Amino acid sequence: MKILCIIPAYNEEKNIAKTISSVKKYINDILVVNDGSKDNTQKLAQETGARVISHIINRGQGASLETGNEYARRHNYDVVVHFDADGQFLAEEIPDILKPIIENAYPISFGSRFLNKKSQIPWFKKHVIMRIAKAINYIFLGVKTSDPQSGFRAMSKEALEKIRIENDGMAHCSEILAKTNKYKFVFKEVPITVLYNEFGQSLGSGFRTVKDLLINKINK
Amino acid sequence: MWQQIIALVLIIIFISRLTLLRKSGKILKNEYIFWIIFWSLAGLAILFLKQLDTLLIDLGFSGSGINFLLYLAVLFLFYLIFRLRLKILDLDKKITKLLREIALRDENNISNDK
User: Residues of A with CB below 8 A from B96's CB?
Assistant: First the structure.
């Protein structure tokens, strides 16, 4: 089974090498999508031996993930794993996220910070932002998950063929959930741990995500 | 009276500018025709402002013709902003698509070099 780990990276020179070496223990094929970084992200990623493709200018995390997905489609991968470059996810949980797809034939699995394992989520984010995000996902997209904005997920070829990410920014998380619902894919939520070295997505960025979602909804 | 003359002079300037842009090939024919019709209608409305007043009163509106034109202009501006926004979103998507193809093509070149 061909598995590809897609790591979108924008100005991640501090974390990229460490993230790649931690992922390598679990997945051989790693694709770093350098999203127009202005620092040494591309060079450092290439030095680790990972495959690197680059956007000439920054287009956002959603755009980078879709570039990685398109690479996987063209290279006939069976499964892709989306993994952040900033070191917030734990590579040792990659087998957990792959298990529902490999062993139980689920088309898609989502990491969730709110099941069992204890992620150090800032109080405001956990109790205010995430609740609002959950409500928005439910009202506008009809999707109910324990974690409305998790970026750690795995997708089978079947899901990859159907789900095309159109939101270039952070709204891709909700978009993928919405399309999972639209194509009636049965999914599995897997408990994951997230390490917060800073606040993560800012409040302003959160509003932009909601705006992107709404605009996309209106345009349809 | 003077206000009408100034407005008409401005419209003539806009139309001549549009014609120059069309002649130099900077705007498409469709767009040129659209704006010529738009400014011609605006010119006619200004020329027949009194008749417009009477028409609006006959139709049961309380505002004057110039107010009516102002409301129409604001509505039209909002519509244009909306269209512009859609166009920008469309361009944004096309830029991403283009960059994606470049990134994937460059990856192929690197593989071939190896």
Answer: 59, 63, 66, 168
